[in-house]
Write a structure and sequence with these properties.
heterodimer, A: alpha+beta, Ubiquitin-like (UB roll), five-stranded mixed beta sheet, 2 helices, 5 strands, globular, B: alpha+beta, Aldehyde Oxidoreductase, domain 3, Aldehyde Oxidoreductase, domain 4, 30 strands, Ald_Oxase/Xan_DH_a/b (chain B), oxidoreductase activity (chain B), Xanthine dehydrogenase family protein molybdopterin-binding subunit (chain B)
Chain lengths: 77, 752
């Protein structure tokens, strides 16, 4: 299955490009992608995963066509 | 959904608040509860050589005293950059910094113990001016230096534009360090639970973010932390960032007991977040017919000691530094600079009031020099939908600059301003002026801006609306209830709301940035659509009526392929074991292009208001009274007129405070205005008469046509007051607040 990853803010440093696609076996979870990227420490603690406006968590099983957003819950004006 | 009707009701939280039965976080009490005291720094800038808590620990009634070494997770917090220690270990950077935390059986004992904590400091020189702080030899607030953020946005050739101008207005403007002064100061209770989890009861503006910040501090799984942010006794931005939560959470987890704190007004004014003071240097060029040619802006934002939201605030100020006027050549530069002047963070308006005070003043002066009417010069320059903004993005939706300008021109105050300006005493002078403002809504490009909402059909046929957005005085929970009720075709009394907490709610982002009403409109509408799908699915499973059948709300129920069903009937069939739930999610649209080097810019949607102000100046004393304000406001589609007028009333009062009274005075890092005896806010005796002009230009990207209006209602009144003083007396006020002393000195420059 094909999944698109979109990295925002400090999470951009974990990949060459802020947006990329992955071919993944069925059953891959969001948490496995977090671990693949090597996000650790305070940045891991402040990470949120968003799918079409919905917060998802490590155990979420990715689906073909998903766009998974990695971001910190920072605000703006 | 164009025909949605919002049933008008009293605020859903009115009775409890009006009767005093609502339990705020500062009212809460738990068995065995301890009281916290934050040991604050003695100096605005110093190294910590040692902290000795031995004397405090042995005081009878003291349960624990924590230092930086006791922080179990990451010792820092901050929405953007976690550079503010929960407990300082090696250095303090402002008078509100925490060097130790005490938990004791009474508040009095905790306070006494705090005085026994012995801290050995090495005092450092203070830097208290953002421009001085940029110099290479300035004392460094942080090891990396004093620049929190530098942003430069350019379009066209600003120097060429200024050369071609017939008139160039150039001035420096200064704005105050306004305090939020919510009725309820920072307070809360942290409760450790038997299963090792933590419940946090503390007024704030985004429970789901507090949960993550607390998890980071405690080194805990965020799902072991429950955050209850409502009810909030006022915020205005001061409770967007964490305040006391990290400290009481550490104490609660250490002691295993509930720990409460409720800051005094003095401690709140010394340690709490403030509006960033700006120094703004602005050169604006106009052709002789009033056409804007160029605007060259440099902003220095006094960040105070820690980052919090200073970067996004600077950037939003730069986005608005030429307003939404047609300016072909712009150079907007800004510096967010660390100093030892307290801490500054989010506050209603988020940088926009500061820059629009400068721009609208330059605009007014240009009109005067060119012999143009203040409405005419603005009308010549306002942008319309489809045009390109001063920072280069295309305005794609709902631009109402011209509508609010036209409306304010037709206001009673503006039309009859010469009559209003008459006085019967020669030392009293009256003036009228107007100003215009857009206010970017939402979090802006590059910051995911999303929301969810649930609509549950409960067992009894009534509904529960679940949405994370916090209510802190805006009236939003009333509005959300009206929205859901309108969509479902039921009276709002049949909709219960669970919101502003991580438990039983759903993340809908922060209650900031004029985003709640608009965001909720789309999330709730999506949940409503999904609810219809779920009803169709449930009927199909039972009666084989077709899963794709359309179910529409009507008169307290739904028309379905199985016939009309009341919600009670649907609940009887489908909600007895668990509620039939509609889930809705929404992602904000974003602007068409990024602004390089300016995260969070630009915005897709703006709020719009124009305001005219009538002031009376006593030329013998400099004292200025704001007598009347007219507000023309585009709500998109008004959900609750009473709440809109309430927002205008409050916004005008807060703008009046900015313009005339309020400033947290800090000298060499020491706060001089520690209570309401010296920090002056408008009272009911000061607020003006209001003229409300509500316009409805439905926002096309909202399912219900609505816009946020909470911030913009305080913006134009600020320059309008300053310019009305000019209209009354001839002097230009370029440093706010326009206190009697300042106005007197402008009127009498020769008096020593």
């Amino acid at each position: 299955m094909n999944v698109k990853i979109k990295l925002f803010q400090d999470y951009k440093q974990y990949h060459d490009t802020p947006e990329y696609e992955l071919e993944l076996p069925a059953g891959t979870t969001a948490g496995e992608i977090v671990r693949q990227l090597g996000i650790k420490g305070a940045e891991l603690a402040y990470l949120i995963l968003i799918l079409k406006g919905k917060r998802v968590y490590d155990e979420y099983v990715l689906q073909d066509g998903d766009e998974l957003v990695f971001a910190a819950p920072i605000g703006g004006g | 959904m164009d025909d949605i009707r919002f049933e008008q009701i009293a605020r859903v939280d009115a009775q409890g608040k009006a009767c005093g039965t609502t339990a705020y976080m500062s009212d809460l009490s738990f068995p065995g509860m301890l009281y916290a005291w934050f040991v604050r720094s003695k100096y605005p800038h110093a190294l910590i050589k040692s902290v000795d808590v031995s004397k405090a620990m042995v005081l009878d009634g003291v349960v624990t005293v924590l230092t930086a070494a006791d922080v179990t997770g990451f010792n820092g917090f901050g929405i953007v950059n976690p550079d503010m220690p929960v407990i300082c270990g090696d250095k303090v950077r402002y008078m509100g910094d925490t060097v130790a935390l005490v938990a004791a059986t009474t508040e009095r004992i905790a306070e006494q113990a705090a005085a026994l904590v012995d801290v050995d400091y090495e005092v450092l020189p203070v830097v208290d001016d953002p421009i001085e702080a940029l110099k290479p030899d300035a004392p460094k607030v942080h090891d990396k230096g004093n620049v929190c953020l530098h942003t430069l946005i350019t379009k066209g050739d600003v120097e060429q534009g200024l050369r071609e101008a017939d008139v160039v207005i150039e001035h420096e403007y200064r704005t105050p360090r306004q305090a939020h002064t919510p009725l309820e100061t920072e307070s809360g209770v942290a409760v450790p639970e038997a299963d090792g989890s933590l419940s946090m009861y503390a007024g704030s503006q985004y429970a789901f973010r507090d949960q993550l910040q607390l998890a980071r501090i405690l080194g805990m799984n965020p799902r072991m932390i429950r955050v209850y942010s409502n009810p909030v006794g006022g915020g205005f931005g001061s409770k967007d960032e964490l305040t006391i939560q990290g400290g009481i959470a550490l104490l609660a987890m250490k002691t295993g007991k509930p720990v409460k704190v409720f800051l005094s007004r003095e401690e709140s004014l010394v340690s709490g977040w403030k509006r960033h003071p700006f120094i703004i240097r602005m050169r604006t060029g106009f052709k002789s017919d009033g056409t804007m040619l160029a605007n060259d802006v440099t902003c220095y934002e006094d960040k105070g000691a820690y980052s919090s939201l200073g970067g996004p605030i600077l950037n939003l100020a730069l986005e608005h530094a030429s307003s939404l006027y047609r300016v072909p050549n712009t150079r907007h530069e800004g510096w967010a600079v660390f100093t030892n002047n307290g801490v500054c963070g989010a506050m209603r308006g988020f940088g926009v009031p500061q820059v629009l005070f400068a721009l609208e003043s330059n605009m007014h002066e240009a009109a005067e020099k060119l012999g143009l009417d203040p409405v005419t010069i603005r009308r010549k320059n306002v942008l319309h939908q489809g045009e390109v903004s001063p920072i280069g993005h295309t305005l794609r939706t709902g631009v109402s600059m011209d509508l609010v300008l036209d409306a304010i021109e037709k206001s009673n105050l503006w039309q009859h301003r010469e009559e209003y300006k008459k006085t019967d005493k020669p030392w009293l002078r009256r003036g009228v002026a107007l100003a215009l403002a857009p206010q970017g809504a939402g979090l802006g490009l590059g910051i995911p801006d999303y929301a969810g909402a649930y609509i549950d059909l409960d067992r009894d046929g009534n509904f529960t609306l679940r949405i994370g957005l916090v209510e802190y005085g805006q009236g939003t929970h009333t509005g959300f209830t009206q929205m859901a009720a309108g969509l479902l075709h039921v009276h709002p009394s049949r909709v219960r709301i669970v919101a502003g907490q991580t438990e039983g709610s759903v993340d809908a982002g922060p209650a900031t940035a004029s985003r709640s009403t608009y965001t909720a409109s789309n999330a709730i509408a999506a949940a409503f659509r999904d609810f219809g799908v779920k009803v169709a699915g449930a009927l199909d499973a039972k009666y084989h009526t077709g899963a794709d059948a359309v179910c529409e709300a009507k008169d307290g129920g739904m028309t379905t392929p199985a016939g009309f069903r009341t919600y009670e009937e649907l609940a009887q069939e489908f909600s007895q074991e668990s509620p039939l739930r509609g889930e809705g999610y929404f992602v904000w649209p974003t602007a068409d292009r990024e602004i390089p080097g300016a995260a969070g810019l630009p915005h897709w949607i703006y709020s719009f208001a124009a305001q005219a102000a009538l002031v009376e100046v006593n030329t013998l004393t400099g004292e200025t009274h704001l007598l009347k304000v007219a507000t023309a406001l585009d709500t998109g589609h008004t959900v609750n007129p009473q709440q809109v007028e309430g927002q205008i009333d409050g916004g005008v009062a807060q703008g009046e405070g900015f313009a005339l009274f309020e400033d947290t005075l800090i000298a060499k890092g020491q706060v001089r205005t520690k209570n309401f005896s010296t920090y002056i806010i408008p009272t009911v005796q000061d607020v003006p008469e209001h003229e409300y002009i509500i316009l409805e230009n439905p926002e096309g990207t909202s399912a219900l046509g609505v816009r946020g209006i909470g911030e913009v209602v305080m913006v134009p009144v600020i320059p309008a007051v300053a310019l009305a003083i000019h209209d009354a007396t001839g002097v230009w006020v370029r440093h706010l607040p326009a206190t009697p002393e300042r106005v007197y000195r402008l009127l009498h420059p020769d008096v020593q």
